[in-house]
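Methods — Computational structure assignment.
A single polypeptide chain was analysed. Its primary sequence is given first, followed by the predicted tertiary structure written as structure tokens.
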Amino acid sequence: MANKGQFEVYAIRYAERNARTRADSFIFDDHRSEPHGMDYFIWLVRNDQHTFLVDTGYDSREAANRGRPVLIDPPAALSAIGVDPAQIDGIIVTHLHYDHAGGLAHFAGKRIHMQAAEMAYATGPCMCYDAMRAPFTADHVCEAVQRLYSGLVTFHQGDAEIVPGLTVHLIGGHSKGLQSVRVETAHGPVVLASDAAHYYENYEFRKPFPIVADVPEMLRGFDRLRVLAGEGGTIVPGHDPLVRERFPAVFENSGVDVRRLDGSGSGR
């Protein structure tokens, strides 16, 4: 287990969607009709003192409603690698889209960390428009509001430290309150971009993703990810199947696809 202030970081794949094209991933692209798959992850961040979950994914009920099957429900994936929800200190919600906050109800009683701008956006006048509310599911947003009224939401406004070595950073763009997560590890910082960059190509070539609340914010966010990573840091996009090629598989006997992101070799 990593030492205080230095974390282990894991990407846990719980779903995939391969019936997509590059037009679904990039506003500007020269090969729009070519197939372009998508993976869905949650992220586990832990050391000797703390265990945090970054996003909750969505569950089989939401999968049925949207026609997007899951490979495994995220709580079951965590159980398979020996993580008891009771061990989780809190949940960092990068944004309230269905595939990132769709499992909040499965982690009852857990404090959630989110940007105040995201709650305002998901419950505000922009949701009057079908195109803007499409990535949200009302039940998930209501779960966040219920958590708020139970005293279990910590709002952040911009950059904030959750615990030493773990910080959140308001990016916006894809959703008005989207935040990315910076994690200090023994091998340098790991920046969990979440949907600030769905794919490596988004930020490497400054190609916006089509689901977007603010295009200039998204473009500035690509630059911010590089600043957060600094020299020698690692940026991990939110949905890129290349994550499975670039990082080693761990917990291979669990039946769950887990990748270790902090450069420390095999998991336990």
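Note: The longest helix spans residues 215-229.
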